[in-house]
Amino acid sequence: MRPLKEVLRDWEAVIGLEVHTELTTLQTKMFCDCHLSHDDPPNTNVCPVCLGMPGALPVPNEKAIESIVMAGLATGCQIQRRSLFYRKHYFYPDMSKNFQTTQGPVAFCMHGHLDLEVAGEGAAERPDCTMEKAADGSYVVPIRILRIHMEEDAAKMVHVGGTEGRITSASESLIDYNRCGTPLIELVTEPDLRTPEEARLFMERLRQTFLALGISDCSLESGSMRCDGNVSIRRRGSRDFGTKTEMKNLNSFKALHDALAYEICRQAELLEAGDVVRQETRHWEPSKRRTVVMRVKETADDYRMYPDPDLAPFDLSDEFIERCRTRIPELPLDKRDRFVATYGLRRTDAAQLAADPMTAAFFEEAARTVATEVVPTVANVIINLLPATKKVMPAQVASLAELLASDALTFAQAREVLELVDGTTDDPQRVIDERGMRQSTDADALAATVEEVLAACADQVRQYREGNRKVVGFLVGQCMRASKGSGNPKLFSRILRERLTREG
Amino acid sequence: MPYIDELSAAEIAAGVARGDFSATEVVRASLDAIASREPDVQAFLQISADLALQTAAVTDARRAKGEPLGLLAGVPVAFKDNMQLVGTRTTCASRMLEHFESPFTATCVQRLLDAGATPIGKTNMDEFAFGSSTESSAFHRTGNPWDTQRVPGGSSGGSAAAVAAGEVPIALGSDTGGSIRQPASFCGVVGMKPTYGVVSRYGVVAFGSSLDQVGPFGRCVCDVALAMDALVVGGRDPLDSMSQSVPASFREQLEEPVEGMRVGVIESLMEHEALSAEVRAALEDARAALETQGVQFVQVALPHMEAAIAAYYVIGPAEAFSNLARFDGVRFGYQEPDCATLAEQTARSRARGFGAEAKRRQLLGAYLLASGVYDQYYYPAQQVRTLITADYRAAFARCDALLLPAAPTAAFRFGEMSTPTQMYAADLFTISNNIAGNAGVSVPVGLGKTSCMPIAAQLQGPAFKDHALLRVARALERGVEDAGRTCSGTVAPGFARMGGVLA
Amino acid sequence: MALTREDVRGIAEYARIALSEQELDEMTSYLNEAVELLEPIRAYDLSGIDPTFHPIGDLTNVMASDEPDAHGRSLDLEVALGNAVSTRGRAFRVPSILGDTAEKGAGAEGGDR
Prior knowledge:
The structure holds three protein chains of three kinds.
Chain A: H1 4-10, E1 11-22, H2 62-74, E2 78-79, E3 82-83, E4 85-89, E5 99-103, E6 109-118, H3 121-124, E7 139-152, E8 156-160, E9 172-176, E10 183-189, H4 196-213, E11 225-235, E12 245-248, H5 253-272, E13 280-285, E14 290-296, E15 306-307, E16 314-315, H6 318-326, H7 332-343, H8 347-354, H9 357-368, H10 375-384, H11 394-405, H12 411-421, H13 428-435, H14 443-456, H15 458-465, H16 471-482, H17 489-503
Parallel strand pairs in A: 12-13
Antiparallel strand pairs in A: 1-10, 1-11, 2-6, 3-16, 4-5, 4-15, 6-7, 7-10, 8-9, 11-12, 13-14
Chain B: H1 9-18, H2 23-41, E1 44-47, H3 49-64, E2 76-80, H4 107-114, E3 118-123, H5 157-164, E4 170-175, H6 181-187, E5 190-193, E6 213-218, H7 221-232, E7 262-265, H8 267-270, H9 277-291, E8 296-299, H10 308-324, H11 342-353, H12 356-368, H13 373-396, E9 401-405, H14 420-425, H15 428-436, E10 440-447, E11 454-460, H16 466-482
Parallel strand pairs in B: 2-3, 2-4, 7-8, 7-9
Antiparallel strand pairs in B: 1-3, 4-6, 5-6, 5-10, 9-11, 10-11
Helix pairs in contact in B: 2-3, 4-7, 5-6, 9-16, 10-12, 10-13, 10-15
Chain C: H1 5-14, H2 21-37, H3 77-82, E1 87-88, E2 91-95, H4 101-108
Antiparallel strand pairs in C: 1-2
């Protein structure tokens, strides 16, 4: 197969996503009051409703309806006041009633969009982009959302007796209804995505948005957020749609990107060889980095959808919708812009901090207590040092950032201090004092270290004199090592240059 | 000492409260009465003697401690076997659920238990309530206590027969297209289908979710009012989305005069070709009984009533297909042994578990919901529902209630209705009321001149005016009594005082 | 348009009700007779008339609070599994799903939702 970049020069991919998100932050299921938990032993959280017992009736969870309305508002959707739940029938025991309660042609949320900012390598995948590109090649593209509807999740099935728990060779299957009836929102995009990178970015944006709303833990790995991708390709310039295939098992951002990339190349190879693409569902195999066919769709399924008579129609009031609107916190993009404007952060740093509500809150808590010019250092610590720690407090980061900003500590020392205070309430200042870790700015002491290093690195000294100025970086590194990280690297650099220039 | 079948539910509750007899004595008398009648009537699928005795003992203990007793303290009640009650099986008269132990208790059942009622057992019915004769029960037929060679009607035939035979004073049934009102008519008892939403459906095995409604049978309107108060006094049921609250004042308003009230009749219906002469004559008598009490009669029309049967046989089967899809033999119900695949197990369990009519309705429903067909039948049926509802609204702008037959004939003999579609057409007078959702009640008005079987008049009222409707029903009952033609309040003659002495 | 025997076979397969050849004949004539009974539905001019999916009451927005086991309905394992013919440990058991893959292969892997 030809590489993606090459394929995308001749072919345009048309991609749409279907994203299912479990509302994991709720207490109860969608249509009954069973406790929402997937971690309990099988069939612990079950009742007549979610087991589909004869005579049981559904009542919708108000908080779930609020959550989907919030999701719709946050993605620019029109909130439909009037909508109905429908019954979607198919015989399969993971849905205890043998129908799924879902929404019909009108969903709670219709016709929204998310604007994607595509930059770097990914931007190059879209050579004929009609969007205005910035000087660095980045562009902004609106991705339309067709709808977000409310439904219920299915039970978990374990296939026994086969290989790898796959169904094809299993002799029997075991059903656990704990997950059955979990509130689930399904978002369907218009086929506006054109590259695997756009698809990945869309999913990332969506995840950040839902995390900010606090409606789900959005875990792709555990399956609380699941994505299916539809993709077809067409010759550049063509306006017709090709035959699409549907991709499943995309349980990471990488899988989403790679499966789409593989599929685009596979389809291109078929079409270039004069073959046709079959309409089918394909399964991404991450270990073999390929998609394999799961199921061929010859005719459309007939789910016998009709309005559920057991559930009253919805006619949401302005008051209800406004109440949902007021519950929407600051969303990641707004937060990013505010971080840039208020704290003077770099846009990429601001975006990284704003992406996750916990991190953003941590940052703001730490930033609150420090001087404005120290805030970017706080951001720097959080982005570069925090991921390796377990339980550090904002005050500790703030204190550390102040030390860094005043050149009292090197970054390497800061890393060490963080490890020491991790999980304690100790003030970094005190730890540093106790251990005498302050960064040395004593020029004489540093000059002595420089002399030692220069003596040991005759080769590099010669290279410098031959005009290789970059070798200074290496020498600074050696000085830092020699001083066990306690020397100020800027000072080392200055002394080194002076010394080498003087000699030369 | 009296025989148990001589007492109304109200009299039993009062007697227990006063200490004339204990709830346990009442149960023993009831069980005795049932034992002597069941060989002929076969109204029950299950007698819950132990549960009844335990419940009665609780009632007696409460009384001994001086605690307040409920509206139905010590009153034996029977439940149609599509109502869940922990401690009993809920079979829906189907092989599919032959061994199904109720995992929870239906709200309507619980409400009667909360009122102190004693659960005597579960009554026979058409399988999953598909039918109007109780002949489609997978287990046995039920005899009409007035003539055991005739059907008791259906689908709540067991409940109607149990009350008519004097086995219990009150029983609950469910009515999807006439399944309370028609058997009440055939068995000479009072049967009420309240407005959709007045009684919770939670725990009642669904047939047509937008049509089903639970209601009581009694030998007199007063007992039906008593049961209604017990059913609604707890307010709306949070477990049924469609449940609504109505005041528990059915008995309070019952004896108020009806003078000046207006009752509508639909001329075209009274001249319907399917209507037997004796039913037509009985309806004339009913009219006269109300007129003597100052009720005014007006002519009204329900122009789309002819389409009601068609709409019903679209909506009913479609909802039934959907509701019965859950019976796949996995979580409960009959499971065919030794199947290699799930698909085979499901198809064969359903083939063996369901009877013929249940299969017919489900396949009809599955067809009607198919894409393309949905737009031809299902959607139009729901539009017709709008028209029928509007017809009722227009009619009730001119009157307080409608008087019409409950069934075109008196009870027929077993096997007399030979084809399913012939049976469907007989639902003409009851169905429209389920389509629109408003209330209806069937009141005995005497015996047919040719069949010598009970005949009822049906009264229908506007939605949520169930109290006023029952008041008209009581007036009709009073008028019939005054005219000396009563079969209301009495046990079918062949079974009266057959065992069951309260001792 | 009359339903053919093959149409009915397809409906029965969809509805998961195994029918013998004789039952198939009976069901075909029943369905055609029943559908004929439904014709009056198509006799009216229904243009512009809204459907009534839910009968009277004008209920809207009926919802419940997000409170765990507010109604004490959670079932003990013995009760939850009590009516099932086939169970294994804490789970309900079904035989091989292989035969279903033609129709439900995708969902069979739990990915359809």
